[in-house]
Amino acid sequence: MQTVKLGKTGPSVSRFGLGCMGMSGMYGESDRAEGIATIHAALDAGVTLLDTGDFYGMGHNEMLIAEALKGRRREDVQLSVKFGAQRDPSAGWIGFDARPAAVKTALAYSLQRLGTDYIDIYRPARLDPNVPIEETIGAIVDMVKAGYVRHIGLSEVGPETIRRAAAVHPIVDLQIEYSLVSRGIEEKILPVTRELGIGITAYGVLSRGLISGHWQSGKAGAGDFRGHAPRFQGDNEARNLALAAALGRVASARGLTTAQAAIAWVAAQGEDIVPVIGARRRDRLAESLKAMEAKLSAEDLAEIEAAVPKGAAAGTRYAEAQMAHLDSEK
Predict the structure, then answer these.
(1) What angle do CA 230, 236, 238 make, to 5 degrees?
(2) 236 lies in which domain range?
(3) Which SUPFAM superfamilies has this protein been placed in (predicted)?
Protein backbone atom coordinates (compact mmCIF):
# COMPACT_ATOMS: atom_id res chain seq x y z
CA MET A 1 0.00 0.00 0.00
CA GLN A 2 1.34 3.41 -0.96
CA THR A 3 1.12 6.22 1.56
CA VAL A 4 0.77 9.98 1.21
CA LYS A 5 0.84 12.92 3.58
CA LEU A 6 -2.62 14.35 4.12
CA GLY A 7 -2.13 18.05 3.50
CA LYS A 8 1.02 19.84 4.52
CA THR A 9 0.29 19.47 8.25
CA GLY A 10 -1.54 16.15 8.38
CA PRO A 11 -0.62 12.54 9.10
CA SER A 12 0.74 9.99 6.66
CA VAL A 13 -2.20 7.91 5.43
CA SER A 14 -2.80 5.08 2.98
CA ARG A 15 -3.20 6.13 -0.65
CA PHE A 16 -6.82 4.94 -0.51
CA GLY A 17 -9.14 5.24 2.49
CA LEU A 18 -12.15 3.14 3.45
CA GLY A 19 -15.51 4.87 3.86
CA CYS A 20 -17.62 2.87 6.30
CA MET A 21 -21.02 4.59 5.92
CA GLY A 22 -22.63 1.84 3.83
CA MET A 23 -22.01 -0.69 6.58
CA SER A 24 -24.65 0.95 8.76
CA GLY A 25 -27.82 0.97 6.75
CA MET A 26 -27.51 4.07 4.57
CA TYR A 27 -27.71 1.85 1.48
CA GLY A 28 -30.40 -0.41 2.87
CA GLU A 29 -29.95 -3.56 4.93
CA SER A 30 -26.34 -4.21 5.90
CA ASP A 31 -24.46 -7.28 7.08
CA ARG A 32 -22.58 -6.56 10.31
CA ALA A 33 -20.26 -9.57 10.03
CA GLU A 34 -19.37 -8.75 6.42
CA GLY A 35 -18.79 -5.12 7.37
CA ILE A 36 -16.30 -6.12 10.05
CA ALA A 37 -14.65 -8.61 7.70
CA THR A 38 -14.33 -5.86 5.08
CA ILE A 39 -12.66 -3.52 7.58
CA HIS A 40 -10.27 -6.34 8.53
CA ALA A 41 -9.49 -7.00 4.85
CA ALA A 42 -8.80 -3.30 4.30
CA LEU A 43 -6.45 -3.12 7.28
CA ASP A 44 -4.67 -6.28 6.16
CA ALA A 45 -4.21 -4.71 2.71
CA GLY A 46 -2.54 -1.69 4.27
CA VAL A 47 -5.46 0.74 4.40
CA THR A 48 -4.99 2.97 7.43
CA LEU A 49 -7.63 5.69 6.95
CA LEU A 50 -11.15 4.78 8.12
CA ASP A 51 -13.89 7.36 7.62
CA THR A 52 -17.15 7.50 9.54
CA GLY A 53 -19.75 9.86 10.97
CA ASP A 54 -21.46 9.82 14.34
CA PHE A 55 -24.84 9.94 12.56
CA TYR A 56 -24.23 6.83 10.42
CA GLY A 57 -26.73 4.45 11.95
CA MET A 58 -26.86 6.79 14.98
CA GLY A 59 -23.61 5.48 16.43
CA HIS A 60 -23.86 2.00 14.89
CA ASN A 61 -20.99 2.69 12.49
CA GLU A 62 -18.63 3.90 15.19
CA MET A 63 -19.38 0.85 17.34
CA LEU A 64 -18.87 -1.40 14.31
CA ILE A 65 -15.44 0.14 13.75
CA ALA A 66 -14.59 -0.23 17.43
CA GLU A 67 -15.41 -3.94 17.25
CA ALA A 68 -13.34 -4.35 14.09
CA LEU A 69 -10.34 -2.64 15.69
CA LYS A 70 -10.20 -4.89 18.75
CA GLY A 71 -6.76 -6.46 18.94
CA ARG A 72 -5.30 -3.99 16.45
CA ARG A 73 -2.71 -1.34 17.27
CA ARG A 74 -4.54 1.97 17.55
CA GLU A 75 -1.53 3.92 16.26
CA ASP A 76 -1.67 2.03 12.95
CA VAL A 77 -5.07 3.50 12.06
CA GLN A 78 -6.30 7.04 11.38
CA LEU A 79 -9.94 7.57 12.33
CA SER A 80 -11.73 10.36 10.48
CA VAL A 81 -15.03 11.33 12.10
CA LYS A 82 -17.75 13.74 10.94
CA PHE A 83 -20.26 15.25 13.36
CA GLY A 84 -23.14 17.69 13.52
CA ALA A 85 -25.99 16.16 11.51
CA GLN A 86 -29.20 15.95 13.54
CA ARG A 87 -31.61 13.04 13.05
CA ASP A 88 -34.84 11.91 14.67
CA PRO A 89 -35.87 8.38 15.74
CA SER A 90 -37.41 7.70 12.32
CA ALA A 91 -34.00 8.42 10.73
CA GLY A 92 -35.20 11.77 9.36
CA TRP A 93 -32.74 14.62 8.84
CA ILE A 94 -33.74 17.56 11.02
CA GLY A 95 -30.86 20.03 10.87
CA PHE A 96 -27.26 20.63 11.80
CA ASP A 97 -25.62 21.71 15.05
CA ALA A 98 -22.00 22.88 15.19
CA ARG A 99 -22.18 25.12 18.27
CA PRO A 100 -19.07 24.80 20.48
CA ALA A 101 -20.93 22.93 23.21
CA ALA A 102 -22.45 20.55 20.65
CA VAL A 103 -19.00 19.93 19.14
CA LYS A 104 -17.57 18.83 22.46
CA THR A 105 -20.59 16.74 23.41
CA ALA A 106 -20.56 14.93 20.06
CA LEU A 107 -16.85 14.26 20.45
CA ALA A 108 -17.36 12.77 23.91
CA TYR A 109 -19.92 10.31 22.57
CA SER A 110 -17.74 9.38 19.59
CA LEU A 111 -14.74 8.66 21.79
CA GLN A 112 -16.89 6.36 23.91
CA ARG A 113 -18.44 4.50 20.97
CA LEU A 114 -15.12 4.12 19.16
CA GLY A 115 -13.40 2.91 22.32
CA THR A 116 -10.50 5.33 21.90
CA ASP A 117 -9.09 8.32 23.74
CA TYR A 118 -8.42 10.40 20.63
CA ILE A 119 -9.65 10.92 17.09
CA ASP A 120 -7.15 11.55 14.33
CA ILE A 121 -9.23 13.88 12.15
CA TYR A 122 -12.41 15.53 13.42
CA ARG A 123 -14.65 17.57 11.15
CA PRO A 124 -18.10 19.15 10.90
CA ALA A 125 -20.05 17.24 8.25
CA ARG A 126 -21.56 20.46 6.93
CA LEU A 127 -21.42 24.19 7.59
CA ASP A 128 -23.88 25.24 10.28
CA PRO A 129 -25.50 28.41 8.85
CA ASN A 130 -26.23 29.65 12.37
CA VAL A 131 -22.68 29.33 13.73
CA PRO A 132 -19.59 31.14 12.41
CA ILE A 133 -17.07 28.57 11.21
CA GLU A 134 -14.49 30.26 13.45
CA GLU A 135 -16.49 29.22 16.52
CA THR A 136 -16.84 25.62 15.39
CA ILE A 137 -13.15 25.29 14.54
CA GLY A 138 -12.23 27.09 17.76
CA ALA A 139 -14.09 24.44 19.77
CA ILE A 140 -12.21 21.67 17.97
CA VAL A 141 -8.94 23.54 18.65
CA ASP A 142 -9.79 23.32 22.37
CA MET A 143 -10.07 19.56 21.95
CA VAL A 144 -6.76 19.43 20.06
CA LYS A 145 -5.08 21.23 22.95
CA ALA A 146 -6.70 18.81 25.41
CA GLY A 147 -5.38 15.83 23.42
CA TYR A 148 -8.73 14.42 22.27
CA VAL A 149 -8.24 15.37 18.60
CA ARG A 150 -5.04 15.20 16.53
CA HIS A 151 -6.04 17.09 13.36
CA ILE A 152 -8.92 19.18 12.01
CA GLY A 153 -10.70 18.64 8.71
CA LEU A 154 -13.63 20.13 6.83
CA SER A 155 -16.40 18.67 4.71
CA GLU A 156 -18.49 20.07 1.83
CA VAL A 157 -17.57 23.73 2.28
CA GLY A 158 -16.62 26.38 -0.25
CA PRO A 159 -13.54 28.60 -0.76
CA GLU A 160 -14.48 31.40 1.65
CA THR A 161 -15.27 29.00 4.48
CA ILE A 162 -12.05 27.08 3.84
CA ARG A 163 -10.00 30.26 4.14
CA ARG A 164 -11.79 31.39 7.31
CA ALA A 165 -11.34 28.00 8.95
CA ALA A 166 -7.66 27.80 7.99
CA ALA A 167 -7.08 31.23 9.54
CA VAL A 168 -8.09 29.75 12.92
CA HIS A 169 -6.10 26.50 12.77
CA PRO A 170 -4.30 24.40 10.14
CA ILE A 171 -6.78 22.26 8.18
CA VAL A 172 -5.40 18.94 6.97
CA ASP A 173 -8.09 17.97 4.48
CA LEU A 174 -11.40 18.78 2.90
CA GLN A 175 -13.73 15.82 2.50
CA ILE A 176 -15.92 16.36 -0.54
CA GLU A 177 -17.53 14.43 -3.36
CA TYR A 178 -15.28 14.09 -6.40
CA SER A 179 -15.58 11.71 -9.32
CA LEU A 180 -15.85 11.60 -13.09
CA VAL A 181 -19.49 12.67 -12.74
CA SER A 182 -18.99 15.14 -9.86
CA ARG A 183 -16.22 17.55 -10.82
CA GLY A 184 -17.53 20.71 -9.20
CA ILE A 185 -14.45 21.22 -7.02
CA GLU A 186 -12.10 21.78 -9.94
CA GLU A 187 -12.81 25.43 -10.71
CA LYS A 188 -12.82 27.21 -7.35
CA ILE A 189 -12.34 24.79 -4.46
CA LEU A 190 -9.32 22.74 -5.56
CA PRO A 191 -7.19 25.84 -6.32
CA VAL A 192 -7.79 27.10 -2.77
CA THR A 193 -6.99 23.81 -1.05
CA ARG A 194 -3.79 23.54 -3.07
CA GLU A 195 -2.83 27.11 -2.28
CA LEU A 196 -3.29 26.45 1.45
CA GLY A 197 -1.73 22.97 1.49
CA ILE A 198 -4.98 21.19 2.32
CA GLY A 199 -5.54 17.65 1.12
CA ILE A 200 -8.72 16.26 -0.43
CA THR A 201 -10.38 13.08 0.80
CA ALA A 202 -12.67 12.31 -2.11
CA TYR A 203 -15.87 10.42 -1.38
CA GLY A 204 -18.43 9.26 -3.93
CA VAL A 205 -15.68 8.25 -6.35
CA LEU A 206 -18.12 5.76 -7.90
CA SER A 207 -21.08 8.10 -7.45
CA ARG A 208 -22.54 5.74 -4.84
CA GLY A 209 -22.16 2.77 -7.16
CA LEU A 210 -23.75 4.42 -10.19
CA ILE A 211 -20.57 4.28 -12.27
CA SER A 212 -19.19 1.11 -10.69
CA GLY A 213 -20.24 -1.19 -13.49
CA HIS A 214 -22.37 -3.13 -10.99
CA TRP A 215 -25.44 -0.91 -10.67
CA GLN A 216 -28.69 -2.08 -12.23
CA SER A 217 -31.70 0.12 -12.91
CA GLY A 218 -34.13 0.21 -10.00
CA LYS A 219 -31.72 -1.64 -7.71
CA ALA A 220 -32.27 0.60 -4.66
CA GLY A 221 -34.29 -1.25 -2.04
CA ALA A 222 -35.98 -0.31 1.23
CA GLY A 223 -33.89 2.03 3.37
CA ASP A 224 -31.52 2.89 0.51
CA PHE A 225 -31.36 6.66 0.13
CA ARG A 226 -30.24 6.26 -3.48
CA GLY A 227 -33.85 5.48 -4.31
CA HIS A 228 -34.58 9.18 -3.73
CA ALA A 229 -31.40 10.62 -5.26
CA PRO A 230 -31.88 12.55 -8.54
CA ARG A 231 -29.15 10.67 -10.42
CA PHE A 232 -30.90 7.37 -9.75
CA GLN A 233 -34.31 8.54 -10.99
CA GLY A 234 -35.98 7.59 -14.29
CA ASP A 235 -34.36 9.05 -17.39
CA ASN A 236 -31.49 10.40 -15.32
CA GLU A 237 -30.54 6.91 -14.23
CA ALA A 238 -30.69 5.62 -17.80
CA ARG A 239 -28.45 8.41 -19.08
CA ASN A 240 -25.96 7.90 -16.28
CA LEU A 241 -25.82 4.15 -16.79
CA ALA A 242 -25.02 4.83 -20.45
CA LEU A 243 -22.02 6.87 -19.26
CA ALA A 244 -20.97 3.99 -17.02
CA ALA A 245 -21.22 1.61 -19.96
CA ALA A 246 -19.04 3.89 -22.10
CA LEU A 247 -16.50 4.04 -19.28
CA GLY A 248 -16.63 0.26 -19.04
CA ARG A 249 -15.65 -0.12 -22.67
CA VAL A 250 -12.62 2.14 -22.23
CA ALA A 251 -11.68 0.33 -19.01
CA SER A 252 -11.98 -3.13 -20.55
CA ALA A 253 -9.59 -2.18 -23.35
CA ARG A 254 -7.01 -1.44 -20.65
CA GLY A 255 -7.57 -4.55 -18.58
CA LEU A 256 -9.53 -2.70 -15.91
CA THR A 257 -13.04 -2.96 -14.55
CA THR A 258 -15.35 0.05 -14.74
CA ALA A 259 -14.88 0.75 -11.04
CA GLN A 260 -11.10 0.50 -11.25
CA ALA A 261 -10.96 2.99 -14.11
CA ALA A 262 -13.19 5.44 -12.24
CA ILE A 263 -11.13 5.22 -9.05
CA ALA A 264 -7.80 5.34 -10.86
CA TRP A 265 -8.93 8.49 -12.66
CA VAL A 266 -9.60 10.23 -9.33
CA ALA A 267 -6.24 9.13 -7.91
CA ALA A 268 -4.49 10.39 -11.06
CA GLN A 269 -5.70 13.94 -10.42
CA GLY A 270 -3.00 14.44 -7.79
CA GLU A 271 -1.31 12.93 -4.76
CA ASP A 272 -3.14 15.47 -2.62
CA ILE A 273 -6.38 13.64 -3.47
CA VAL A 274 -7.09 10.46 -1.47
CA PRO A 275 -9.99 8.38 -2.83
CA VAL A 276 -12.24 7.08 -0.06
CA ILE A 277 -13.59 3.71 -1.18
CA GLY A 278 -17.13 3.06 0.02
CA ALA A 279 -16.98 -0.74 -0.16
CA ARG A 280 -19.03 -2.74 2.32
CA ARG A 281 -18.11 -6.16 0.94
CA ARG A 282 -14.72 -7.82 0.67
CA ASP A 283 -15.04 -8.59 -3.03
CA ARG A 284 -15.88 -4.98 -3.89
CA LEU A 285 -13.01 -3.78 -1.72
CA ALA A 286 -10.53 -6.10 -3.44
CA GLU A 287 -11.67 -4.90 -6.85
CA SER A 288 -11.37 -1.24 -5.86
CA LEU A 289 -7.93 -1.52 -4.28
CA LYS A 290 -6.51 -2.95 -7.49
CA ALA A 291 -7.12 0.48 -9.04
CA MET A 292 -3.96 1.58 -7.27
CA GLU A 293 -1.96 -0.61 -9.65
CA ALA A 294 -3.37 1.11 -12.74
CA LYS A 295 -0.89 3.28 -14.61
CA LEU A 296 -2.93 5.67 -16.72
CA SER A 297 -1.19 7.58 -19.50
CA ALA A 298 -2.30 11.00 -20.69
CA GLU A 299 -4.03 9.22 -23.57
CA ASP A 300 -5.80 6.87 -21.18
CA LEU A 301 -7.04 9.76 -19.08
CA ALA A 302 -8.24 11.62 -22.16
CA GLU A 303 -10.21 8.59 -23.37
CA ILE A 304 -11.78 8.11 -19.95
CA GLU A 305 -12.86 11.75 -19.88
CA ALA A 306 -14.19 11.45 -23.43
CA ALA A 307 -16.35 8.54 -22.31
CA VAL A 308 -17.66 10.51 -19.33
CA PRO A 309 -17.39 14.20 -20.31
CA LYS A 310 -17.32 16.83 -17.60
CA GLY A 311 -20.86 17.90 -16.78
CA ALA A 312 -22.44 14.96 -18.62
CA ALA A 313 -24.14 13.43 -15.57
CA ALA A 314 -27.90 13.77 -15.42
CA GLY A 315 -29.30 15.02 -12.13
CA THR A 316 -27.70 16.62 -9.09
CA ARG A 317 -25.73 14.59 -6.56
CA TYR A 318 -28.23 15.29 -3.76
CA ALA A 319 -31.90 16.22 -3.77
CA GLU A 320 -32.69 19.92 -4.28
CA ALA A 321 -33.32 20.64 -0.60
CA GLN A 322 -29.99 19.11 0.43
CA MET A 323 -28.10 20.88 -2.37
CA ALA A 324 -29.41 24.20 -1.07
CA HIS A 325 -27.68 23.58 2.27
CA LEU A 326 -24.26 22.75 0.78
CA ASP A 327 -21.79 25.57 1.28
CA SER A 328 -19.60 23.88 -1.33
CA GLU A 329 -22.28 24.48 -3.99
CA LYS A 330 -22.64 28.22 -3.40
Answers:
(1) 135
(2) 3-329
(3) NAD(P)-linked oxidoreductase (SSF51430)
